[in-house]
Amino acid sequence: MSTQPLMVQLTERSYPIHFSGVAEQLKADVATLRAAGRSVRAISDARVLNAHPHYLAQAGFQDNEVLALPAGEPTKSVEFFSQCLSFLAGQAANRDCTLFAFGGGVIGDLAGYVAASYLRGIDFYQIPTTLLSMVDSSVGGKTGINLPEGKNLVGAFWQPKAVYVDSELLQTLPPREFAAGMAEVIKYGMLADRELFNDLVALDGLNARSPELPAIVRRCCAIKALVVADDEKETARSGGRALLNLGHTFAHAIENVAGYGQYLHGEAVGIGLCLATRLSVALKQLPIRDIVNVERIVSQFQLPCRLNEALRLEELMTAMLRDKKNRGGQLRFVTMTEIGSAVTTDGIEINLVKDLWREAGAE
Ligand SMILES: NC(=O)c1ccc[n+]([C@@H]2O[C@H](COP(=O)([O-])OP(=O)(O)OC[C@H]3O[C@@H](n4cnc5c(N)ncnc54)[C@H](O)[C@@H]3O)[C@@H](O)[C@H]2O)c1
After folding, report:
1. I need a surface site. Which of 73, 185, 226, 280 has the fewest CB within 10 A?
2. Global pTM exceeds 0.90
3. Cα angle at 323 between 322 and 325, to 5 degrees?
4. What's the domain count of the chain?
């Protein structure tokens, strides 16, 4: 694997993703910022800090520069957003202040939105600690929080200045969270990289100690970086950044109807990937044997292919129609024309989608 950082190419907003010698790089960058008269702050969650109590100190952060929030999705809220702003304002942080997110997607999304908002925008850095945040949420600049009315309803595009991917941090990640991150890894193979998909199939399993893991994480980041460079704000009329939502229209509906917390996001994505495959087969874009191929790999990585318990079909359909990714009231899905190649498809028949939900266990 290359030891060079991977660049996300966004002209003046381009930034590196570091994969090698990450702890040292982070420490050096923090020292450089301080030497330039910049201050540093970090936002993290209690569980991450408990699992890695010395990581930030070793990188040069002092205790009073770190805000520890409760772990979990409810932290991505207006309440904790406000607490983060008060943390910065209370210490009279000015525009020279830089903000680091040390945590999973929850902390990354929240801290990114805090950085985008405080003093109309301060520099932001990501130190992802979950597999999901390493391969997905830390790259691409989508930041935001939830409202009681729905997930990710408030946010901003705010690119980090650098991302530090230290896969050693994953050794403390609970196996269920690791599996959830694998859903996004499988997704990249399905939407853009058949070889990655095949390599995953050939693996006996994967965990935080697997020697193959760092290269797999880097491959996923490379795909995300290319897609984001091409369509940073998801404005392409077709294809583009929306392709990263393969399986997610189904997944968001499951999370919404089951109630957040019932399924981890990645678990809902596992079901969503299977349904997106079935949809592609029904549209005659994929051969029927790919249903078996996808269901096998999803199960191989301890993810569900079907609902654990029946959910109400009508509620799932309502949630899908509300999805903010839909265009002009029409259902829009990401489908595959082959494993490794995805497209956006509009105008899908509602009855076809209902049949798919029933096959997945909806009533
Ligand atoms: N911005 C984006 O592009 C994007 C993309 C995908 C998902 N997301 C968002 O990401 C969030 C989900 O992220 P997530 O799955 O990383 O969840 P998370 O941040 O809640 O982390 C999952 C759990 O693992 C714990 N944890 C994190 N790192 C750990 C470690 N190294 N060791 C031990 N425990 C650790 C956390 O404390 C938490 O309890 C959602 O809010 C989702 O909307 C954003």
Report:
1. 226
2. yes
3. 135
4. 2
Distance 128 CA to ligand 1 centre (A): 8
Active site residues: 120, 142, 184, 224, 234, 241, 245, 248, 252, 265
The CB of 234 under 6 Å from ligand 1? The reply is no
Question: Is residue 150 very low, low, confident or very high in pLDDT (cuts 50, 70, 90)?
Answer: confident
Does 133 sit in the ligand 1 pocket, CB within 6 Å?
A: yes
Taking the centre of ligand 1 as the mean of its atom positions, its distance from the CA of residue 180, in whole angstroms, is 10
> 292-327 pLDDT, tens per residue?
999 999 999 999 999 999 999 999 999 998 876 666
Q: How far apart are CA 208 and CA 279, in angstroms?
A: 32
Residues 135 and 247 in one domain: no
Q: Does 143 map to a domain?
A: yes
Determine the structural domain holding residue 27 and report its residue range. 6-172
CATH number at residue 202: 1.20.1090.10
Contacts of 171 (CB under 8 A, 6+ apart): 208, 209
**227 and 131 in one domain?**
no
